[in-house]
Write a structure and sequence with these properties.
The complex is a heterodimer of chains A (113) and B (107).
Chain A: E1 3-7, E2 10-12, E3 18-25, E4 34-39, E5 45-51, E6 58-60, E7 68-73, E8 78-83, E9 92-98, E10 102-103, E11 107-111
Chain B: E1 4-7, E2 10-13, E3 19-25, E4 33-38, E5 45-49, E6 53-54, E7 62-67, E8 70-75, E9 84-90, E10 97-98, E11 102-106
Parallel strand pairs in B: 2-11
Antiparallel strand pairs in B: 1-3, 3-8, 4-5, 4-9, 5-6, 7-8, 9-10, 9-11
The chains are: A mainly beta (113), B mainly beta (107).
């Protein structure tokens, strides 16, 4: 069974940093591109970052480019999202997703003073 | 960026009804269109990928169609458990984008 479990949720102040993790199981992690998607409270979905299976390519939404970094460790079956210079508008539920099919349950990131 | 426009934003229908949800892209997305279902408090679930392919484990009452810029999700016989918000999503070109969703309710 495919499982994706995010961690790292919390409340942080504007301008600070935070790192999310997503541990994968039930499939060969190193064979799949992985993504981060977020959903602000009572809002729609926003695709924010994609990393190829071998980390050879990474893509970002303009809203996070230059502030967020997606990475992965295939030896640990883990996907990461490092978030810097956080803003109030980054407040959202953050999901990791395998390609476009399976999603984790999400972690809440709140940016507020 | 490709804009995805879903209609209607809210749809109310009766159990057993045939329901059609629409999604229009601002440019040709070559059938790289997925549909997701999100129930309250849950993560989105993939229903249909690449326009008309039913994801494993999804009931056959769900189907998708379309081409170019216009796509539809059809539920052949609405069930109470189908109450959810449905999002379309294009993965033809970066940045990938979602529609704003159709909230499906039971009358």
């Amino acid at each position: 069974e495919v499982q994706l479990v995010e961690s790292g949720e919390g409340l942080v102040q504007p301008g600070s940093s935070m790192k999310l993790s997503c541990v994968a199981s039930g499939f060969t992690f190193s064979n799949y591109g992985m993504n981060w998607i977020r959903q602000a409270p009572k809002k729609g979905l926003e695709w924010i970052a994609l990393i190829y299976y071998d980390s050879s390519s990474k893509y970002y939404a303009d809203s996070v480019k230059g502030r967020f970094t997606i990475s992965r460790d295939n030896s640990k079956n883990t996907l990461y999202l490092e978030m810097n210079s956080l803003r109030s508008e980054d407040t959202a539920m953050y999901y990791c997703a395998r390609a476009f099919d399976y999603w984790g349950q999400g972690v809440m990131v709140t940016v507020s003073s | 960026d490709i804009q995805m426009t879903q209609s209607p934003s809210v749809l109310s229908a009766s159990v057993g009804d045939r329901v059609t949800l629409n999604c229009k892209a601002s440019q040709n997305i070559n059938k790289y269109l997925n549909w997701y279902q999100q129930k309250l408090g849950e993560a989105p679930k993939l229903l249909i990928y690449n326009t008309n392919n039913l994801q494993t484990g999804i009931p056959s009452r769900f189907s998708g169609s379309g081409s170019g810029t216009d796509y539809t999700l059809t539920i052949s016989s609405l069930q109470p458990e189908d109450v959810a918000t449905y999002f379309c999503f294009q993965h033809n070109s970066w940045p990938f984008t979602f529609g704003s969703g159709t909230k499906l309710e039971i009358k």
